[in-house]
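Researcher: Let's run the pair from yesterday's discussion. Sequence first, then tokens, for each.
Model: Starting with the first of the pair.
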Amino acid sequence: SALYFSLWDSVPLPATASPDDGFPLPRFPDVRVQRSQLTNHLAAADGKDAWSTFIQRQIAAFSRADALLVNTAENLEPKGLSMLRQWLNVPTYPVGPLLRAPAPSPEAKKTSPILEWLDEQPPGSVLYISFGSLYRITAPQMMELARGLEQSSHRFVWVIRPPAGNDANGEFSPEWLPEGFRERAEAEGRGLVVRCWAPQVEILAHAATGAVLTHCGWNAVQEARGHGVPLLGWPLSAEQFYNSKLLAEEMVCVEVARGSAAVDAAKVAAAVEAVLGETSMERAAMKRRAAEMKEAIDAARDGDKSSVTVMRRFLDEVLPPRGAQFMASWALQSACFRDGAMSHQLRSSHPMM
């Protein structure tokens, strides 16, 4: 968030000779950002366009806030929290990670063929693939991802939706995948192609899951780290590029592709091998780092700096006498935001909302 919003606060951004060339973030010059890590709206913004106007209003509202509650923990993102506090100069409370722990249930396995299938796979052998409920890759990218999975020969569970530009809830066309891809994977017992939905938390918690290919949305990142699962990053929009950057720097993620750029099946296969291959040196290092991330998230739930402790401190500081006023103001603003037609449109189209 510190990166994303400070970029918007600095438009127009510097031009570079190549999309992979970096430029220093104006507000934080020790951080370099690549043009390929910018959304199309951000790359084209001049400070006077509709997106700039909308997000600058958000930034102004943040700066006037009495406090910010952030879905992270101090020990997970010390640098990001420091940047946010330095930039906005607003009391910031890390009250995360907000994660749902899966409840082990024999009934859940009976109703989920995916979990039953995972029970039959070796530990740490399966790649789980999901781009979340909002984002989708293009048809050519989907084709190359499927080919890369076949080349890798590793097991997978792919939660699949129609590609970008098509009705997300429409029929799935066989032409979006290599001919016979799904049938071969299932016949060989090597993979499942699942339409639209899967029990993600339960899959990440399963012993057979060895890695997750994700768009690096913050909820997906938190869930993967909370279960000690290494990541393959494929950021598509908003702050996902910087989540992926952070995870790669922490050596718990390998970035496969970025945005809508072309992707190569061989690169997909190599990335899958890096996180699941038995002889891969990267796999061992990533597993160790992912286990450390899980420990950090577990620690965030207990102790003096736990999310519960931080939330109690926040409540102590706003209740009373300001608590009632604070809650009434928050409820009024929430109601106004929900009822505004234009706000609803922006909320529906903007990935941060």
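Model: Moving on to the second of the pair.
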Amino acid sequence: RCINNPNNDLVLGIIDSQRTSGDTDKVSPALISRSGLRWYKNRVLLSYDMDSKELNNGWQGEGWKGTDRDGRRMMLTMAYVAASRLLTANSFRDLSKETLHDLSRTFPYPDTPECSARPIDAFVGDGYPRVYDKAVAPGWHQLTLFNTSHPGREATFAVPLAGEQAAGALGLDPGKTYYLYDFWNDRLAGKLRGADVLVQDLRPGEARMLAVHEAQAAPQFIATDRHVMQGALDLIVRPAWDGQKMTLSGTSRVAADDPYRVIIACNGFLPASATAQGATAELGKPSAQNGLTVLTLRADKQSRDVAWSVLFSR
């Protein structure tokens, strides 16, 4: 039964799934917030289901002024962040190459009981939640900014990095420094002190996924391009620095015929070469502007777990 039926919590522990809407193939801030505000139940007590979604135009509601690419990516991102599953209203044969690519970047969904991302502005913002945070590991958060403006217009976000989450902040250490990498726009969104406020201007209808990593003294990974969680699911062995060998090494799940990119912050070191087992490894030149380099892995014949290593010098 839908979430608006009375006494529905009486069946918690008995049911596996609950609808958050009547029949609809559209997406809206109101629909997303129904599961987003229940983040502590979602994926733990039950799965929230937003009904099947039209992947070609499901974001084009009244007042929509964004692009189809932003709308599609917003719908796919928020289905992953705030709900538990994505039901498609389309056959794969009716989807464009670009849509299939974006869809693949939100799968797999979590298969273990864990709370979904927390809407940290739920008690301090007006209207629907716009800022969702998921702590992945110590020093690593996935931050989602969701432009809920209606009718669609650009929106400015200001998120304090330090402070209480109930007050709309991320709860990071004000004495440390953090990298922020933007998944869909494929760019470094900033390198900020924990005492700073993150300011971002979002396009109409855009949802922006940012990987937030505590900056280290040695080379470190800060993102991958396989999944919106930017390494949380596809890094089978999290990258680790070996100071004696001067290497950053990890293991990634790489799909066949799908180049896989690891974004690395050099932190004052110089990348020299890269190796990989069962795949080709290509190391890009470090950027003089932001000190980032990109490791690209290719497993051309079959999908596999690829152990890789990047050698650095001073």
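Researcher: Give me one sentence on the second I can quote.
Model: The longest helix spans residues 68-82.
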